[in-house]
Amino acid sequence: MSEVFARTHTQKEDRLWVDKRSEDVNEVQSPPPPPIDEDEVWARIAGGHKRGRIYGMGVVPSHKYPHVFADPDDDDTASSPPDLREQVTLFNRKISQQAEAHAQRVAAVEAVCAKKTKSQEISDLKKAYSDIYSFLTQMGSSGSSSAAMPDMPPHRPPA
Questions:
Q1: Three-class DSSP category at 17
Q2: Burial class of 3 by CB neighbour count within 10 A (0 to 12, 13 to 18, 19+)
Q3: C-alpha dihedral, 154 to 157 to 158 to 159, nearest 10°
Q4: How many Å apart are CA 149 and CA 137, to the nearest integer?
Q5: Residue 138 pLDDT greater than 70, yes or no
């Protein structure tokens, strides 16, 4: 652009500026644009990076080409570090959710174990009752006096 401006705002004969404004603009030229990064252009055309890969380039290490992995819409990403407080908050939320899910699983397992334990206790009591009843029945039929043996209810198998 500066070359076009110079050709259109200078006189052909002596190459002097046509006016003061043209001369001032020429002195205060903007800095040259940054060089074009062909890798970045390719990455954008190819659809960006996905899982550390760029279409047509294969696996591309992000530390080797940080400019390719930078978000083109966010100019602050390269200059500012990530918000660590936000990351810590997110991690704490995840940990809390996982701890709650774990506590629910533990409670469910404990409930099943308690149910089995009560069921086992009931089974053990039924067996003990049956053993005692059998023992007392044998004692009564072995000739001991009926006065010493209280009347026993008829044996009914536990339900």
A1: strand
A2: exposed
A3: -120
A4: 10
A5: yes
Do 83 and 91 form a contact (C-beta atoms < 8 A)? no
The model's pLDDT over 90-120, given as tens digits with 9 standing for 90+, comes to: 888 888 888 888 888 888 888 877 777 777 8
Residue 78 pLDDT: 44
Taking the C-alpha atoms of residue 95 and residue 106, their distance in angstroms, rounded to an integer, is: 16
Task: Please state the pTM of the whole predicted model.
Answer: 0.28
The residue count of the chain comes to: 159
pLDDT at 76 over 50: no
The count of other CB atoms within 10 Å of the CB of residue 103 is 10
Structure-block tokens of residue 10 = 């200078």
Which amino acid type is present at position 47?
A: G
* CB-based burial label for 46 (10 Å; 0-12, 13-18, 19+): middle
Q: Which residues contact 133 (CB under 8 A, 6 or more apart)?
A: 152, 155
